[in-house]
Amino acid sequence: MSAGEGSALVTGASRGIGRAIALRLARDGYEVIGVARGRGALDALRDEIVAAGGRCRPIAVDLSNAQDTAQALSGLDVDVLVNNAGTGIIKPFVDLSLDEWRAMVDLNVNALFHVTRAVLPGMLQRGRGQVCTIGSIGGRSAWVGGSCYGATKAFVTSWSESLMLEVRERGVKVSVVMPGGVATEFGGKVPNEADRWKLTPEDVADAVAHVLAAPGSVLVHRLEIRSSAAPPKRPPP
């Protein structure tokens, strides 16, 4: 199967990076299965894709719920899975509540199991498919406030490489795209002029499309992208 054929399931597709990926893959010819919690935003995504001549099926589900996710994704034949859904609460460890910790681990880590476990067996049975997970350079670079979020992204990198070694000889590719700073509403922050130096969600979507377009004999397993612009220097304390 060549790039742009078949179906692509994108989690966290209702906004930000996930929405940009869904729109890009629809333009590339994939039937997009957009997954997120908010039905209204997913319907708007579907309408935009269909208006442009593409195909999209929205599925509203809380991916942190194992049973609901298994039921919602049951029976789907998926050629490409883009694990994008995630959340970030950036604050010092001693200020994190247990609920905040659990929210990040449930969505950034456990949802990878729920979603991938639902669709990977079909890929292995058919002997083809690709799993591409959105990581972060924050998974290998420590910073104040990133004790939980950064750890979940380190998990993504390790998990992706282990999975790649397990399934690459069975026709399934596993990749991780690791962007630097991206101008989105991630963490509840509204992008502003100070974010102009950052990558855009479309930049990340282009990187995912590049990974998926690699020849069948080529596996782009890990791709790190950064803005060519440097972040503004902070004044000395």
Give your account of this protein's structure.
The chain is α/β, with parallel strands linked by helices. The protein has a single domain (7-225), classed as NAD(P)-binding Rossmann-like Domain (Rossmann fold), CATH 3.40.50.720. It is built from 6 helices and 7 strands. It has helices at residues 16-27, 39-51, 66-73, 98-126, 149-167, 201-212; strands at residues 7-11, 31-36, 55-60, 80-83, 129-134, 172-179, 222-225. Strands 3-2-1-4-5-6-7 form a 7-stranded parallel β-sheet, sandwiched between helices. β4 (80-83), α4 and β5 form a beta-alpha-beta unit. The longest helix is centred in the middle third of the chain and has 29 residues, at 98-126. 38% of the residues are buried. The model has no long low-confidence stretch (mean pLDDT 92).
Query: What's the helix count?
Result: 6
Shape: globular
* Total strand segments: 7
Low-pLDDT windows of residues? none
CATH superfamily: NAD(P)-binding Rossmann-like Domain
Percent strand: 15-25%
Helix share bin: 25-40%
Number of individual domains: 1
How many strands, which pairing sense, and closed or not: the largest β-sheet? 7 strands, parallel
Task: Classify the fold: give the CATH topology.
Answer: Rossmann fold
* Rounded mean pLDDT score: 92
CATH architecture: 3-Layer(aba) Sandwich
CATH top level assignment = Alpha Beta
Name the helix and strand elements from N-terminus to C-terminus, one letter apiece.
EHEHEHEHEHEHE
Widest β-sheet, arrangement of strands: 3-2-1-4-5-6-7
Q: Briefly note the structural class of the backbone.
A: alpha/beta
Radius of gyration over C-alpha positions, nearest whole angstrom: 17 Å
